[in-house]
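Notes from the 1:1 (GR / supervisor)

We went over the backlog. Supervisor wanted to see one worked example end to end before approving the batch request, so GR pasted a single chain during the call. The sequence is below; no edits were made to it. Supervisor asked that the structure be written out right there so they could see what the output format looks like.
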Amino acid sequence: MANNILLLDATLRDGGQGLEDLNKNGFSNKFFSEQDKHSIINNLGASNVEIIEIGAMGPSDDDKSKFAIYQNVEELSKFLPEKRNPNALYAGLYIGPDTDVDDIPNWNPSLVEGIRVILRYSELKKSLDYCAALSRKGYKVFVQPMLTMRYSDDELDMVINAANEMNAYACYFVDSYGYMQSNDIKRLFDYYDAKLNKDIRIGFHAHNNMNLAYSNVQYFLNIETERILIVDSCATGMGQGAGNLQTELIVPYLNEMYGKNYDYDSVLDVCEILDCEMIPNDLWGYSVARLLPAVYKTAYKYGLMMRNKYHLSFRQMNKILREMPDENRMRFIAKDLENIIVSLNKIDK
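Structure output shown during the call:
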């Protein structure tokens, strides 16, 4: 049914965070111009995508606005278009629970209505309390447990119970490192569906490390349910790691199979901006260097750094990832990688 599927485009947010990360690690100097940002937002409004994420937020000593990362919700909301699509929900994402909640204004029509919050696994209760505070301030809150496969049932219960108590707009499962399979999607969906209030939307954020984002989203959408579902995508698939489900790929599928009415030309206009201005070779999308960490359920940055900084062969990378201590897999730390490479200097050449 068309009415129970919503598409969220995260091109500026996930794409911007991807560009910032590539820039920080010396892989790219690409960024969004002010005109790029306005054009992307306006074209997404014209496309009739239901939810448009216009950037991320987090306090920083550096100006990251060229990556669509802003200091606060007021700064981000300056990019709301003068003529908004009245049927679209405009949103922004807090990278973590780091901004003092007292410094965040109550929602008003000059601000984005939707707020997504990446839950910090090491500060789970703080993150959930932060979401609840934003909900009390009048925002539509999306609860985002990054790397959901890491969560135990007890931890998922914490997330679900908090989402119910705050009456969250949506609760997501997130394939941050791109290794989820269809059985993982079914397990998480059933777990959420059994325990979440029925009016809370279930969202799925897929990454493409194993080239499964499109098929996994199709599987997710084909689950029999009366609940409203949200799927995330980005134009050209740009995003962190191997990037995301491509908006230009899922839109014709949703139009044909679910009777949606997205304007495909407007989506392609976003792709045109990115293709002409933003896309150097191999910055996102499938690659063996991004696949190998997913095979071992490991942070994708290990693969990028091993290949591009240390210039290791795929065979060498496979050996390191296969033998890496489990405690190092969930979070990339550059010094840990250096120590692992030194400790495994018996790598076959």
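Supervisor's comment: Residues 2-277 form a domain with the TIM Barrel fold (CATH 3.20.20.70).
Batch request approved.
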